[in-house]
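Q: What residues go here?
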């Protein structure tokens, strides 16, 4: 089994950000959420107040102004071309994505890419989380919850914040654009805010 982070790893960009901007273009009512998103981002990233889950819950309130699964499908109809060529070349049927992005956004990829998705459980109608943001150690916990004895052959991520999953893999890679680099375990991230 190979395991992948998603954003900037096998997808060329940040899918959550891309979906938000897609919604701004296609569902103008979501533009009313911009002040709340800016405030929540400043509170978390500038003033270091609250958790990443709390920040994202405030950000995802724009979901109340979209057409749920219908808009997610339309988004992927336009954005599936953002899957990087290297992934298409190494794809295996038992591949798994483990991402902090919302599950409702990535779940359609199970059929489109023939992969398994583990992601942050966010209600598509309210933006509320069911559990923690699927980030850092939470990725390992969620993986082990579903696959207690599974071995990871190869792990791929664009960020050293995913070291807990890299440590479970026989081989791990940092993805820099389209370049695969052997994981450097001396570059682990410290003081991560979850």
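A:
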């Amino acid at each position: 089994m190979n395991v992948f982070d998603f954003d900037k790893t096998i997808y060329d960009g940040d899918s959550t950000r891309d979906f938000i901007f897609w919604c701004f273009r296609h569902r103008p009512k979501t533009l009313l959420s911009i002040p709340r998103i800016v405030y929540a981002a400043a509170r978390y990233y500038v003033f270091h107040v609250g958790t990443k889950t709390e920040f994202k819950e405030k950000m995802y309130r724009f979901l109340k102004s979209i057409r749920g699964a219908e808009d997610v499908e339309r988004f992927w109809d336009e954005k599936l071309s953002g899957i990087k060529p290297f992934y298409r070349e190494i794809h295996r049927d038992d591949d798994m994505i483990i991402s902090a992005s919302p599950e409702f956004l990535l779940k359609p990829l199970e059929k489109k890419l023939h992969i398994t998705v583990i992601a942050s459980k966010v209600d598509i109608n309210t933006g509320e989380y069911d559990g923690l943001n699927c980030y850092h150690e939470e990725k390992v916990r969620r993986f082990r919850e579903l696959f207690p004895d599974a071995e990871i052959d190869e792990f791929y991520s664009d960020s050293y914040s995913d070291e807990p999953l890299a440590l479970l893999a026989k081989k791990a890679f940092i993805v820099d654009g389209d370049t695969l680099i052997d994981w450097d375990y001396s570059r682990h991230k410290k003081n991560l805010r979850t």
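A: Context that may help when evaluating the design: The first helix runs from residue 15 to 26. The chain has one domain: 2-187.
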